[in-house]
Amino acid sequence: MRRLALIAAAAPLAALAAAPAAASQFHDLAAIDGAVAQFAGAQIGQSGGAQTPVDRQMRLAECAAPLALDWYGAGETAVRVTCPGSWRIFVPIMRTAASVSAAEQAPVVSRRDLLRVEAGGAGFRVSRSGEALEEGQVGEAIRVKIDDGTRQGRVVTARVVEAGLVRVAVR
C-alpha cells in the first residue's frame, strides 16, 4: 500500500519532467520573430518590421531544415515563413506613410497601358495581354480589358504587381 502511495506521489513529478521534452517538439516562436526581424531589417512594432510577435499559442512542428523567408503580397505587406515540407505562416508587416517610398505612391500603371495579366494557383500560371482601363499603383485593384480575340474584350479586376504586370485572383 505504501508503494502505491509513492507511485501516486511521483506521477505529477514525472509529468512535469516530461513537459520540457514535449515542448521541444515545437518550433521556437521567438526564433521566428528574430528571423523575420533580420529579414525585414526592422524590429517588431517598428515601421517595416512585424506588426506583432508571432502568436504564442501556435504549435508548429520543429523544423529540421532552415526556414525559408520571402516577401508576400503586393507592396511587401507580409513575410511568408516556410518550413520546407511542413508548415507555412504569414507575418504581417507594419507599413506607415514614412515607410512607403515615393515610387510606390506614384501610379505605375496608366490608363490605356498594355499589360501582362497573370492568373494562377498551385503549380500553374497563365498570362494574357490586356489594356488598363484606369491608373493604379502597386497593390491597388484596377479594371483591365483582357484581349480575348473579340473587339469588346473581357473586363476583369486585377491587382497591380509592378509596371506592366497585374494579377487576377483565382478562387
Task: List the defining traits of the structure above.
171 residues, alpha+beta, three-stranded antiparallel beta sheet, 3 helices, 22% helix, elongated, disordered N terminus
Question: Brief description of this entry?
Answer:
By secondary structure, this protein is of the alpha+beta class. Helix content is 22%, strand content 29%.
Please tell me about this protein's structure.
- The chain is an alpha+beta fold.
- 22% of the residues lie in helices and 29% in strands.
- The chain has a 5-stranded mixed β-barrel with strand order 4-5-6-7-8. Strands 1-2-3 form a 3-stranded antiparallel β-sheet, with helices on one face.
- Strand 5 (124-132) and strand 6 form a beta hairpin.
Strand arrangement, largest sheet?
Answer: 4-5-6-7-8
| Gyration radius from CA atoms, angstroms | 24 Å
In the predicted model, the low-confidence regions spanning at least 5 consecutive residues are: 1-23
Please give the largest β-sheet.
5 strands, mixed, barrel
3D shape: elongated
Secondary-structure blueprint:
Layout: H1 2-23, H2 29-40, E1 68-72, E2 78-82, E3 88-92, H3 102-105, E4 114-121, E5 124-132, E6 141-146, E7 154-162, E8 165-167
